[in-house]
Amino acid sequence: AIYGMSYLSNSKGHKIWCPNKESPHRRYLIRSSGKHESPHEQQCRHYGINVGGEYEPLSREEIGQHARGIFNTAINAVLPSQMVHDALQVKDGVLSVKEQTYELKKNVHISAFGKAVIGMVRSAESVLGDEIVQGIASVPFNIQNVLREAGKSDLLPLDNSKVKICEGAKNNIPDEAAQTTAMAIYHQAQQVTADDILLVLVSGGGSALLPSPIPPITLNEMAETTRVMGKAGATIQELNTVRKQLEILKGGGLARAAFPAKVVTLILSDVIGDPLDLIASGPTVEDPSTAAQCLGLFQKLNVHEDIPNTVKNFLQEKLDKSQCDKDSDVGFDHVQNVLVGTNNIAIDAASSRAIQLGYLPFVLSTSLAGDASEAGVLYGKLAEFVYLSFACGKKSDSNRVLCQLEMDIVQRGVEKAKLNQLLDTCHKAQAYGKGVCIISGGETTVDVKGSGKGGRNQELALSAAMQLRHSFQDLDILKHYGIQFLSGGTDGQDGPTEAAGATADPELIREAEVQGFNPQKYLDQNDTFTFYSAVNGGANLVTTGLTGTNVMDIQILLVNCFDQMDKGSF
């Protein structure tokens, strides 16, 4: 069988290398001189390989579709339905969740919050049925309409659902609607008894959808604290550390409120490393953070003077008392926290799809963090690194330039051993006539200096486009190499925009300039959504709509060498 890359012999006994029909190196089998097709030629046709003609590389648009296809595959791998079904097992009136069992007697209450929980609710309903008594779900504004319009009604709750769906946090910003829902979830938790099960469904975006500031702190003061920290480049971990100290339900608050009921929490992670206490600010996880840490973060980010006085005074009082305002006498023995979905699962699926498309996948990182613009520059340089790895055998000065670039990439945080592994992957790709697909996952941040509209993935992509323009100024190179980059959020919403992310290639910046746009200006103003919406008619935006899941972001870099000979199969 032909798998990925193999060879056939023509009628003269010459071996002809034949990749699969989706490979980035679609070669044509040369017809034999006979009147009829040979069996080998017929087999080529069977596998979608044209017979006759010359070499035809994939177009720029086709490689772009490969990147989008890999991204979509990653998202589909972490949709909530199967994950919840796998986690909840019901038999003979007993609910099994991993090693724990719970007696069912129409005693299940549901609390859900996050961008992906609406689909998790639907799955829980299909498993538990009439065992559910009631429930409340805090979900993103307009998500029900978006899912219907996207043909994803299967993610919506059943018509006879006992779970009340409440929308809020428009553009992922906590608002009064989300706060009202959060307090309803709090009161529900206070009412459950020792005979009840509180099933908590949590996903990324849960922090914004569960705002519950401790009086006298107001919602506006919480929002201002988050805004100031975010503008200074605070990570999601740092933001959630502060939220846990300032809100009722976070940092284990929901679990404490539900005591003595049994609490089962299914978690879809959107935080690097999957720390349970930081995902949605850990509403059912014991809180290791302190008020002192929060005050220290304000100093570290140089925002202490900009934080609302009510917030600082509240934290200082906590510090002075050397204790937490939250009840500390309630343990967490009644709680079971289960991680059901992660970025790693999405990356594994992306890697598998890349193989099917004719690439050798290389996972750069599952914890990409730091400044989005700097990450974009790194990816632009990685594209150049792969190109030079392919070109070393063709240009005498390529090795010297490659060594210099290698040092630059190491200084940007990629370990030398990791870069050696990438180089080995490039050599294998060249030997087998395949492209290279570099994949990473994580969540970067944006140091907001302008007043534009954008998101971290669009910022990362535009920065990568700028570096790709610099690295590939020789247009002749692009006749022989196809390069495409994509950065997108698995939740389908990058910042307060309608896009999940964006793509980039070495030609994008030239096209923008021809169309009268100054890319650097848009990057400086953090106005990347405006840039991508205008250039090429918005063709480089990645728009999925809200996906119903959220496991952080995915980056995909494809590099193809069109004129390398296909060498064999492995």
What does this structure look like?
The chain is an alpha/beta fold and 570 residues long. Helix content is 39%, strand content 18%. It has 19 helices and 17 strands. It has a six-stranded parallel β-sheet, sandwiched between helices. The protein has a six-stranded mixed β-sheet with strand order 12-13-17-14-15-16, with helices on both faces. Helix 5 (143-149) links the parallel strand 7 and strand 8 (163-168). Helix 13 (372-391) packs antiparallel against helix 14. The protein is globular and about 70 Å long. One of its GO terms (cellular component) is cytoplasm. Belongs to the glycerate kinase type-2 family. Keywords: ATP-binding, Kinase, Nucleotide-binding, Transferase. Its EC number is 2.7.1.31.
Features:
570 residues, disordered N terminus, 17 strands, alpha/beta, disordered C terminus, single chain, globular, 6-stranded parallel beta sheet, EC 2.7.1.31, 19 helices, 39% helix, 6-stranded mixed beta sheet
Q: With helices defined by DSSP (H or I, 4 residues minimum), what is the helix count? A: 19
* Biggest β-sheet description: 6 strands, parallel
Overall strand count? 17
Structural class: alpha/beta
How far apart are the first and last residues' alpha carbons, in Å? Answer: 12 Å
Strand percentage, roughly?
15-25%
Mean pLDDT: 88
Uncertain regions spanning at least 5 consecutive residues: 1-22, 24-35, 565-570
Order of strands across the main sheet: 8-7-6-9-10-11
Shape: globular
Helical content (DSSP H or I, runs of 4+): 25-40%
* Radius of gyration, CA atoms, in whole angstroms: 26 Å
EC number: 2.7.1.31
Protein name: Glycerate kinase
Family: Belongs to the glycerate kinase type-2 family.
Organism: Owenia fusiformis
